[in-house]
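Rotation project, supervised by the postdoc (A.L.). Task for the rotation student: set up a whole-complex structure prediction and record inputs and outputs verbatim in this book. Inputs entered:
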Amino acid sequence: MSKIEEALKKAKASRGDNVTSIKSGTDLMALRSSERALVAGKDPSGYSIARRESSTKEIALMDNGELLDQNELAELRVIHSDMVDSGVANTYRDLRTKLIQRSQGRNFIAMLTSCVPGEDSSSTSLNLATAFSFDESKTSLLIDCNLNDPRLDKFLGLEADAGLTDYLENEHIDIESILHATGIKRLKMIPAGTSKETSTEYFTSMRMRQLMSSLLGRYDDRYIFIDAAPIAESADTRILVELCDFVLLVVPYGRVTKNRITEAAEAIGKDKLLGVVFSDIPRMPKIKLPSAFNKIFGV
Amino acid sequence: MTRLPFEEIFHTLMGECYARRNTIFVMFVVISLLLLAAGSVWPKRYTSFAIIHVDSTNILQPLMQGAAEATQAIDHVANAREIIYGERIMERVLSEAGWLKTNPSEVEQEKIKQDLKKNILITDIGDSLIKIEYRDSKPMRAYVTAKSLGELFINEGERSKMEESQAAYTFIEKQVNEYLTKLTSVEEELREFRSDNPDARPGLESEISTRIATLQSNLERARLELRETMIRRDSIKEQLSGEAAITISQSREGQYRGKIADLQAQLETLRLDYNETYPDIVRIKHQIEDLKQTMNEEIRRRSDAQHQAKKSGSTYVDESIMLNPLYQQLRGDLSSAETQIATLNARIAETNKMIDNEYERARRIHGGEVELTKLTRDYQVNQEIYQDLLRRKENAHVSRSLDQENQGLTFRIQEPAKIPLLPTGLRFLHFAAAGLLLGICIPVGLLYVMLQIDPRVRFAKIISTDVGLPVLAEISRIPTISETQKAKANMAIVYTGIVMVLAIYAIVSWIKFTGQI
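Outputs recorded:
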């Protein structure tokens, strides 16, 4: 039994409310706000500043592991706040703002999938999660759901460790044991796991739904990003669409035709598809003029 | 297809250029150096030209106006080309422009002529102006050759024009003589014909036709009249057969008897009312008595006359018998009709004879008139042409005289050839500029073409408009530190390469302009 269910039971017993148990993915989303409140032991409407403060404290105390320095992040193509060319970081910040506006301030589960195989969705989801973790009051969690071609752990240089499939297969494994530090402040990740068989069964299981609900409900300032396999080529991704709040379709520059984009968008469906992230655009670097030139011409 | 803003295309193109900088750089170096090399070895070409005014009027044209159709579209350039490329002018150009100084062999001369022809350009620049252009690697030779070509062309043109006017005069003179002979011949034929056919004159046939028609009309009228007369004669004959020759009038005896009968009737009527003594009755009785007496005397006189006639042996004609006047009239008419019939028959016979005569005459003159018309027409036509040609012959004579005295000159140099100071056509500078420009434009242009034809999406606007999905972010490629360092090193190489290419350009240009190559 998950912690959420335990919390729900406790809440039901203490307040006598008729709380419906979690049965399906469809009412999962509807119950999220109630769950948050119930996990916190408070009414959803009275979402207090005290709770926010305690959350910030919890975040501050969060185990980030050994943090990566700027060079290491740059080598991993991950944005950081002190980037020389801040354009990309700002783009991700803008995207973050758009997503928060869309979710009306609530935390959410966003899935990123690409039109074609490659590391586009992994890179974009990692950077987007990193952009969310720039904010000290927010944490982000990255889940590698691309079971056939998991990239995030390799991307971050993590050793193959217990991950999502291990958790879904083994009931004795708890959530904490699959949450791994990434070396980036306030960003944790769940790797794909060591077992990669019958993947479709994993995502349709009740345990998967409970996991998602639990992860989302535990901290209301935790934003979850799922890195999924390309939608056109993976049945897993189509199932995962049901479990997330919205989907971002990553379109890599110069590698897909309009038809492929349309097919991917149709596979996701209009309800969940939030929009397209056009990635990997080649740009000519800005020519850095000598400082003497700038002084003379006042540039 | 979505119309993309220039700025977006430009940024994408720049990004692609950066991504493929090595390929572009290599293409730039290859193209620019190739064109620099081509420009270095490209020979200098000096062009000298002469502009010649050619009068478009042909001497034969005004002379033969109306009599013969001359070619209207005169292609001056084709004419000039024909003259200049002709063997005569080529030979003279070779000698005048100094090509024969080295004493080339026949084969070499032929090759020089071929090269000359290749380098000569003859163009029509309008308003009857012909530009004769010659290109050569040496400016002086270009000038001399162009000058010679212009002058020789004019000389040749004048000569051919003179020949042309002479030929025109000769031609017209020949024609005049031919027509004179023809005219004389036709005149003679006409004269002979007239003597053979004195009554042959134009319009005689129609005159005969009219006459025959008149005679035919008269004949018809006479026949009609004859038929009418014969009908009248038959009618008179019929009337005559029903009419008596004499009539018997009432005798005096009969007249008296009648009167007595009348008086007797009156007497009877009066006796019904009156007595025998009534005066009227008495008077009537007396009258009857008188009448009876007179009647008896008449009877007696007649019988006496008859006796008297018998005795004398003469024919006694009763006084009551007399000739019938109508019968007499009809007899007269019949006689008249018979006479008219005879007259009309005679007239018809005469008219028929006259018609036959006219037909005979018509047959006789028919062939003669056709011959006469032909001869007359030939004579008139030949006469007209002859007179016209005589006039033209005079004009041709004047034109020939003008040409002989160079008064009718139609070629003149509008602009003489000059020594070219600057080379023309493609020069080193053009190659050098084109090398740098094309070195950049060709690879960038190819990239642009690829952007246009490659169906893979390279513009966010296409996703938002063509596919209809909102684009939340456009994220540039994030280079790693090592990639950045590599890119910097790479760019340093590219910049160095560009500087080296420019340096090569500068060196080659300097050598070129100082005349070392």
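Student's summary: The CA atoms of residues 51 and 131 of chain B lie 4 Å apart.
Supervisor addendum: Residues 325-404 of chain B form the longest helix (80 residues).
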